[in-house]
Structures are given as structure tokens and as C-alpha cells.
Specification:
0% strand, 418 residues, Growth Hormone, Chain: A, 21 helices, mainly alpha
Amino acid sequence: MINRIADRNKFRYVLIVSLSFMWIVVYLQRINIGALLVDTRFLEELGLVGQTAQQGLLMTVFLLVYSVANIAAIPVSNRLGPREALLLGIFIASAAMLAGGWLASFTAILMVRVLLGIGNGIHFPNMSILVKRWFPPHERGLANSMYGVGGCVGMIIAFPLFSAINSRLGWEFSFFIPALLALLCTLPLWLRWISDSPRDNPYITVEEVNYICSYNEQETVSDNGIAGAKSMLLKPPFILLCIAYTAFLCSWWGILTWMPQYLVQARGFDMNGTSGNLALAYLMAAAGILTGGSLVDRTKRKSKIAIFALVGVALATLGIALVPSPILAVAFMVIAVGINEFVYPAVWSMLQLLLPDSLMAAGSGIMSGISNLLSAVSPFIIGWLIQISGNYVLGLLFLVTFSALGAVSCVFLYRQGY
């Protein structure tokens, strides 16, 4: 089968589908906490009943470490190459998850989240490096969305899956099962379906290599090493991309962390209803990221897609906060989650156009690291706002503000030709 795909000069899609499956499992690892926050036994055993700030800290500490690891792991990616760096990240994260199932204290689970952040932080930037190397510019929007949709699929299956696991097997298995699945997903790396570049892959045809490289070599420009990296950090387009990506992540992590509890406690849904509503939202996200990726490839100024999306997210999130009807609140949640995904392929495609291959590891790590670092406090801040106000409105307005800021940054990117 692999050889038949290669003979059609489409082997690059084997790579991107493999990355998507990995990303599904990576998301299952990181978001099991969302389902555990409504699991009574987990909350009681860890002493977290009513402690919304501490609950938010379980996600925030992961994001903080993940953010730093994105940046700190730049030398790892440069030294090992993306294939071996992906293997290392998966092994660290899986070891942490296996340990998590045996531990039953808040401090211990917090340490598991730290190790998980390190493993996932090593993992993420390498996917953008591979898209840059394996896809010509006019295919990168769809390529970014094809691996990115793995996160949405992970969200679709996560809450029904973890609800079933927690009720039938116990919360410990919501750590064990994703760890074992991640190790299984390393098979494409061992088989070298995923390689650092098309030129060193044993399956791809010469014709496909030449097709990819004919476009990518036109983009190659020289850099000045450390001086080039420092110059990149000071470029207004790079800073604006970081702001836009931060806005995307604030909504992503904020909704990801607090929507299950919001629907149960503030809107009166039971856990089964909540799981169904969240699955619908992330099904819309999957459609949104793929649609956004296709639009990005057809649009010369990719920032237009991000402007539209972020304005839509701000308005939809405002709707979640203000409408009295629980059904309308769910409808606005579905819209917000779906439209937000348009931002992802737009931002990463702009970064891949902005930077040469030699700076992709640094650029991907720094943008992801900075944006995740800035957005990492959002679950904690939302939890704190919920705790001091006694309702969820202030937390949702916090997300509205960041989406609006992201839209403004994309307007400036548009004016600069991106």
C-alpha cells in the first residue's frame, strides 16, 4: 500500500496523516485533565473539590512547562533532526503518563504534568519543520490543517472516551491508555515513513522529491546564524504572528479546560449531555481547520482568514457569556470553537513563508513557546475570575478581549502584505 501511494507521487500525505494520528494521541495525553475535573473520585482523592484555582493550575503548569520546552528544545531539534526529536518527545510524555496512573496526590500529578509538558514541548515544533520541508508553499495551508485536525479529533473522542474509562475502569486508566497508544504511534517513525526531509526518505519517488524541492529551494535564503535568529525576533511580522497565535491559544485552552465544568455547573447539562455537546463543538473544529487550510492555500494574503476568524470567535464567545438559553450557549460554543480553528493554518503558513528552513526550528519553537507561555495563564486566570465572581461571565469576557487583540494584530499583518 505504501509503495502504491509513493508511485502516485503522493507520499508526502502518508507523512502528514501519520503526524495527524500522533497528534490525536498527544492531545489525549494532555487533555485527560479536562474530563477528570468532573470526576468525583479523582477530585476527592486529590483534595480538589471546590478548588477551581488549583484545578486550573493542573492545566496551567503543563502549559508553562510546555511553552518553555518549545524554546529550550530548539537545540534538540537542530541536533537530532525532527524524526528523532519526535521519538524523544513521545517517550518522555508516555513515561510520565504511565507514572501518573500510579500516583494519587495533587503534587505528584502536578509533576506528571511537568514531564508531559517537556515531552510535548519537544514534539510540537518539529511538525512545522516537516511541513516546511515536505510541502510546497501552495499546499502548506492544507498540510498544516491535516496534522492540526488531529487535535480536533482528539477532542471529539476525548470526553466520551475518558468518561467511559473513568466510570468503568477508574481515573488511573485515563493515564495508562493514552501512554500505550502514543508508543504504538511511533511505528511510522521506526519504519521511516517519516524522515527529516524528502531526500533521505526510502519510499518517496525521485519525481516527487524534485517536485517538492523545486518550490522549496526557491524559498531558501541565507541566514546569519545567531544574528539571523535575533533579527527574526525583532521583525514586526513575527511579533504580530505571536500575538495572533496567542489569541488562538487563549480561546483554545480556555474553552478546552473550562467548558465541561461550565456546561455541567452553569448550564445544567449532565455528563452525557456535556460529552455530546463537546463532541459536536470539536467536530465543527475539525471541519473548521480543514476548511481554513483550504482557504489559506487559495488566498494570497493569508491574514484575511485569521482576521475573519478571530472577530467571529470574539462575537461567539460573547454570545456564550450573555445568552440566557443553555441551547443557544451551546450553539455559540460550537461556532466559537469551529471558527477559531481557521486561525491555525493561517498563522503557521505565514510563519513558513516568513522564515527560511535554517530558522524553522528556532522560529517554530519560539513562536509556539512565547504564545503558549502568554496563553498558559488563561485557564488559571479564568478559574480565578470564576472563583472571585461566583459565575463564568468574567472568564468568558477575558477570552473575548484576547480574540479582539488577535484580530487587530492580523489587520497589521494584512497591511504588511501577509
